[in-house]
């Protein structure tokens, strides 16, 4: 058979040629704009040529700090189109982490939305590799800025070459993009995606039993484009000629509901917090959501009540899926098998609320204390993965050795598997708390607390939260001498300047002792149980 490299640029070329009239509907800070794939293709080619003119070369990284909109989509293809690497940066990270990852990735150019301008101005002197900034804005003129040189995205595009030829002298294993993911402690870790991985993963999104994405869909990725490439939906949608609806900056549940109604969105994807918000909005407003044929939900466990509400009340099928930054991300997805359709509703819900079955082309192993676990839905083990869109290292990072061993990715997720091969996540070995789809490092908060003079020791654990799925709660043992006079408020004041507001623990609980393992590590599972009791008593 022929051996033709799988390149991301061929996806956009397909959209230009076979779906020139299909559209990308984008909400920006000043309204809704629509472009056809023909126009998106032309604008992307112009951007590729402009980036080359600024001096970006093959293999170099171009960072984006942006929401989900058409310009970000153009960057998705223009950057790889010249053989450079699309580095999507999580705008919700702390400034220190943002500086770290820009320097670590050695981004040469940054494309960014206007709301990120103050942040970039503040940290610009710490950015070691950045040679140019490009502002993605609807406004005609550039604002006054200390960033230098600063280009206007639309002006660059207007001066670019509409018939620029995307680079074809690339290997399919060459990097196409990168994304940093939070670590238990310390700086985020970079994952590099290859052209091959992204193309094959996009194909998987189109499979009927996965996301079933197709030309006839109107897809709205709510999951951010800086979070595992919005789960790969922008790439796959362009490839299949799917209409895209981009929800833009600072969207609210109301805006999402309006977009679903007005644009007749058929599929959408995001974390449970988004769907809890939408559910609340649907209950209060008057929206037509009948166009929706499915909601894809992942990133955190989908509560049963959420699945039930969408399916029974709004008749919108709700698909639970699991993945991670290291896995591009789709690896496990929950669907009923054809012979399970007649099961009682509660039983079906039970199956659907698990994370699901492995998608084709990915392999897994679940390893417990005594080797691979039984398929009994009870024995727990760590989930190990391998496959064509699973990373095999962290970018220039020693922590590679912890997570990637013997040809497998050790996910740090503890799971069970039942006799039908359905996986359920039961715990996490990583000391991280996932709040509204974003990570909080419990270890970082513990270390900060333990740096306070009055604190003897501190452990931070995740407690379940209706809206945010998980929230941090700090358990603190005070030094004897400080017990009398130290208050929660004092500790909060101490933490506030060190962390983003959403990182602050929901509660600080004083204790006499923190349970520990035989080797002196915090026994967080025991602490969680202890706290459950405490919280129920408080109620
Ligand atoms: P990220 O790399 O930020 O996408 O986060 C990946 C991690 O999120 C996984 O390792 C899991 O701990 C968690 N996760 C993702 N999807 C789910 C899900 N459906 N249910 C429970 N946890 C999930």
From TrEMBL:
Which InterPro entries does the entry mention? AMP-bd_C, AMP-bd_C_sf, AMP-dep_synth/lig_dom, ANL_N_sf
The protein's matches in Gene3D superfamilies, at most eight in alphabetical order, are given as: 3.30.300.30, N-terminal domain of ligase-like (3.40.50.12780)
Task: Supply the alphabetized keyword list.
Answer: ATP-binding, Fatty acid metabolism, Ligase, Lipid metabolism, Nucleotide-binding
Q: Which Gene Ontology terms describe the biological processes this protein takes part in?
A: fatty acid metabolic process
UniProt keyword Transcription, yes or no: no
- Family assignment from sequence similarity: Belongs to the ATP-dependent AMP-binding enzyme family.
Q: What is this protein called?
A: Fatty-acid--CoA ligase
Residue limits of the AMP-dependent synthetase/ligase domain? Answer: 13-395
Q: Please list the GO terms describing molecular function.
A: ATP binding; ligase activity
Q: Where is the AMP-binding enzyme C-terminal domain?
A: 445-521
The record lists the lineage as: Bacteria, Bacillati, Bacillota, Bacilli, Bacillales
- Its domain of life reads Bacteria
